[in-house]
Fold:
Amino acid sequence: MEQAEPQPKKSLPAGVDGNTGGRIKQLLESHNLSTYEANQRLGYEKTSKLYKVLKGEVKPSYETLVDLLSAFPEVSAEWLLMGWGSMKRDNSTQHANARPGTHMPAARSTSLQPGRGYPQVLVITVDQKGKENTLLVPVKAQAGYRHAFNEPVYLEQMDPYHLPGFTGSTYRAFEVAGDSMLPSFGHHDIVVCSYVDRWELLKPWESYVIVTAENVLLKRIAARVTDWNGTLELHSDNSAAYPVYDLPVSDILQLWMVRGMVSTNPPGRPDTMLQRLQEVIEDLGHDYHEVRRFLDETAHEPLRPRK
Structure:
């Protein structure tokens, strides 16, 4: 049974991240606009739409946020969506004051995209209590996901879930197709992933779902992104059947890091050969865990010919 959490003080209207409604109110006050005048400027026939956002009764929709940024082009998208930096747009603003956590919508860092405009908005869905959903993207929907991954109407058609242990971040689940990542991930397994907004900080050799305009891939990435105009080396666990290939970083639309998996094929009985190998290593006077750590660290190095 969950313990009741203390209710936060409602000093600001609730918004996308708990404060977006407050920032919208601050924006209107800076332009000396009443709620009625703001609705007129945004082209809304019903004044109740913006009024409810400012009162904290509803969260601003993706369309409302876009309308605000279009009507007030001098306003920083990062400030409005996430509370980063100042209200007025400034291309030199750094992310040093960015608050941790991922909210709705979330913005991707532009540190690797100098001069490419504003951060990409990540659209998510929430339940009736405002808790973020984990959306499942099955194989049959992945072709459409490549083109509509940030369309609210499309995402609302996905099945939402809440998975124990996956909280505090933005998660998405993808169904695996094929055998390129065997034995780690099999056909029809579900990988649960967290959104990666700082590509230069990804962990080498971890598994990632990579979304491009052509494919939704599950691969291991060999190194961090250091050059926006460069390439990423993608590896399959089933390396005997699937060779390494390079993918231009500019082709990537989204990155999701695998954090867990759901499978209908639980592992079978442990391999007794592995247990016997461990015993032999220890009989020879070596530490099994040290040997395994060495093998893991050198697994991707080329074999050296014996002299």
About this structure: The two ends are 64 Å apart (CA to CA).
